[in-house]
Specification:
- The protein is α+β, with helices and mostly antiparallel strands and 185 residues long.
- The protein is built from six helices and eight strands.
- It has helices at residues 2-24, 36-41, 47-50, 56-65, 119-128, 156-176, and strands at 54-55, 71-75, 78-85, 88-95, 101-102, 104-110, 133-136, 142-149.
- It has a six-stranded antiparallel sheet. It has a two-stranded antiparallel ribbon with strand order 1-5.
- α4 crosses α6 (156-176).
- The protein is elongated, with a radius of gyration of 21 Å.
- The relative contact order is 0.14.
């Protein structure tokens, strides 16, 4: 009984320390090597092995499975999806991409309201919300964004949850700036 408790405690420590131990050792050194058997025994993978990301095609498939259009394109060499939700156009940009898979995705939309939106209004939105961030671009147009991170191609449910969050962010922001379904992009 005591041995099982000790192994459990060591596994928990290894889970917490494994990523920092793997990255703390200088290249070519064996400094992190002393923990390798413990980390392996605990079934822990380092962050480099865990995060494989999702392809833009994987994310577009999730959009389509949820009834959205998903036009795949490139923007500055990075993958992007153009779509629409709740009557608002938006783009989803992929970041941290390697070998066709991206680790981070940024929902982004700008609004073209009939009236000027003040920085105070933007700041008030940012103060009351956790998901999404708003700002005024160089033309003074209000923008809203939401960033999320994926681990691998099996994160479809995470993309779905973030689609729901994004829809809520867009609706909340439009209501906040009193923008009623006009030309959002």
């Amino acid at each position: 009984m005591k041995i099982a408790a000790i192994i459990g405690a060591l596994s928990s420590v290894a889970l917490v320390l494994a990523p920092s131990l793997a990255s703390a050792a200088p290249a070519g050194s064996s400094a992190g090597g002393a923990m390798a058997p413990l980390v392996a025994a605990a079934g822990v993978q380092t962050s480099a092995a865990i995060s494989t990301g999702m392809t833009i095609e994987d994310v577009a498939a999730v959009f389509r499975n949820n009834g959205l259009n998903a036009e795949i394109s490139q923007d500055g060499g990075e993958p992007v999806i153009y779509s629409e939700i709740a009557g608002f156009n938006f783009a989803l940009f992929g970041f941290g991409c390697a070998s066709g898979a991206c680790n981070e995705f940024l929902f982004s939309s700008y609004f073209d309201p009939d009236k000027e939106i003040s920085l105070d209004a933007i700041n008030a939105f940012n103060e009351k919300t956790v998901a999404g961030r708003a700002f005024l671009d160089e033309d003074g147009d209000p923008n809203v964004e939401h960033l999320f991170t994926v681990s691998d191609g099996a994160d479809e449910d995470l993309v779905e949850r973030n689609l729901a969050i994004w829809e809520s962010v867009l609706i909340d922001f439009a209501e906040h700036i009193q923008f009623f379904h006009g030309a959002a992009s």
